[in-house]
Amino acid sequence: MRTILIVDDEPNYQIVLSEFLRDEGFETLTADNGQQAIDLVKSHDVDLVITDMQMPGMDGFALLQAIKEHHSALPVIMITAYGEVEKAVRAMQLGAFNYLTKPFNNDELLACATKAIEHFGLAEENKRLRREISGRDQFDQLVGKNKAMQQLYGLIERVAPSQANVLISGESGTGKELVARAIHDNSDRGQGPFVTVNCGAIPEALLESEFFGHERGAFTGAIAMRKGKFELADRGTIFLDEIGEMPLPLQVKLLRVLQEKSFERVGGEKLIHVDVRIVAATNKDLKEEVSLGNFREDLFYRLNVVHLPLPPLRERPDDIPMLAEYFVRKYAVQGGRPELSLAPDTVRFLASLPWDGNVRELENTIERATILCPGSVIEPEDVQPMSGGLTGYQNAAANVSVEQIAEEAKLADVLNDIEEKMLKRALEKANFVQTQAAKQLGITKSLLQYKMKKFQIKRLDD
Fold first, then answer.
1. Three-state SS for 6?
2. Is residue 124 pLDDT above 60, yes or no?
3. Residue 248: its pLDDT value, please?
4. Assign residue 57 a region: left if phi > 0, alpha if psi is -120 to 50, beta otherwise?
5. Mean pLDDT across the stretch 127-147?
6. Tens of pLDDT along 451-460?
7. DSSP assignments along 22-71, one per residue
8. Distance between CA atoms of residues 59 and 443, nearest Å
9. Which residues pair with 342 in a beta bridge?
10. How distant is the alpha carbon of residue 435 from its chain centre?
11. How far is Cα 460 from Cα 201, in angstroms, rounded to an integer?
12. Which of 73-82, 119-128, 199-208, 318-327 shows the lowest mean pLDDT across its residues?
């Protein structure tokens, strides 16, 4: 439903225009002055502004210029008094879509408003398509040739053209939103909106308003009507991330939307119909949540028409080199260092790590390495993963007195010496039980094994 902002310092005129446009199927917002109008344009999804030319304080010209600075494509229709042709011409030169001269009839207003909104819709759609077409391949940023990933690509190809709801499951950081985006882009809704809602990041008290919008005065602070995510996703896809965090009362309302394709805004009575496909994601076992009474069984089956499980990175280690190279290229170019590359030892080191944070952790680690790497080749010591980095060694080095170090000593030699001694001490203390030694050092077992190989540390009886 399109929204029109009416700006006029005469309340009666606001009421008359609002009632007429609402009867014609539009949503309306009203403002008494220019500054209030600018605030509404910045905080709401407005499709057209109709403003009087003569207003105290900020007049129509100043308002038009302010709107164009914020949103150049937003159409503005100016209302001028009889005989103000010169002002109307000036308004058109400043970017007004059209003007109406008082008195005008309702048919004239409706025709002008409809044409302006259609023009705006086409301009916005073309802009969005240009953004999406630029540099987009079939599955966007999904990277990997592992057998599980190949199966996933096949599932996406089969499910995308359908209208079925999809449930994506997987640990945090596995790329659930990228899969949702790939489903949307490869469907017949690909030219429509893709709207994301993180159900776990929004306070429970605000979730209903975030989903379904609210009317003016629905609660304290609701100074104007606001469209919700479902309304914004009309004729497109809504991605409900962390669906397992949704409170039970809202689950009931979501079920109704799935069944009836309609809802009311918070504080409203008007039924709003939408055509939206739902793709949901969770890092929880929803079947278990159903058995615990935390998730509605009927909603689970409505969402779980097609289930796409995403494997954690530790189950697809053969994809780590490809992912690492992909992220190096991405962040090296962004950082203005296109010559950066990964040393073979670094690739092997990355493939040996557990990656508890999955692809997201690997990406963050590579981004950090492209920033901190002093040379053109990223070496293993340039890599500092969150799930087992070099922190323990660095802290130990910081506690060594400078007086104990020869002046001619090289930093790399000193750090290597400290690492080797700490590794030997921890392993001897743990009787060469690697899990215990790694725990004592505060690193992963994989990193410990890499360092043992680097310093050629073995048990004497090996």
1. strand
2. yes
3. 92
4. left
5. 61
6. 888 888 988 6
7. HHTT-EEEEESSHHHHHHHHHHS--SEEEEES--SSS-HHHHHHHHHHH-
8. 66
9. 378
10. 38
11. 54
12. 119-128
Mean pLDDT over each residue of the chain, to the nearest integer: 85
Give the phi and the psi of residue 78 in degrees, each rounded to 5: -95, 135
How far is 31 from 144, CA to CA, in rounded Å? 53
Measured between alpha carbons, how far is 265 from 216 in angstroms, rounded to an integer?
10
Percent of the chain residues topping a pLDDT of 70: 89
**Per-residue b/e over 249-270, b at no fewer than 16 CB within 10 Å?**
ebbebbeebeeeeebebbebee
Q: Which helix (H) or strand (E) holds 417?
A: helix 411-429
- Domains, the chain, in order of start with CATH, read 3-132 (3.40.50.2300), 147-311 (3.40.50.300), 316-387 (1.10.8.60), 400-462 (1.10.10.60)
Residue 95 near residue 64 (C-beta atoms within 8 A) = yes
What is the spatial distance between Cα 357 and Cα 377, in angstroms, rounded to a whole number? Answer: 25
Give the residue carrying structure tokens 């079925």: 164
Helices (H), 30-175: 34-43, 60-70, 85-93, 106-133, 147-159
Q: What is the pLDDT of residue 389?
A: 42
Token representation of residue 67: 């709107």
Structure tokens at 301: 């089956």
C-beta separation of 314 from 361 below 8 A: no
Residue 444: which of 360, 322, 361 has the closest Cα?
361
Contact between 376 and 340 (Cβ < 8 Å) = yes
Q: Are strands 272-273 and 262-263 parallel, antiparallel or unpaired?
A: antiparallel
State yes or no: pLDDT of 399 exceeds 90: no
Please state, in angstroms and rounded to a whole number, the distance separating the CA atoms of residues 216 and 95.
30
What pLDDT score was predicted for residue 129?
Answer: 55
Beta bridge partners of 166: 279, 306
* CA-based nearest residue to 279, from 162, 173, 360: 162
pLDDT in tens, 371-395: 888 889 998 888 876 654 444 334 4
- Tell me 342's DSSP state: E
For residue 392, the model assigns a pLDDT of 38
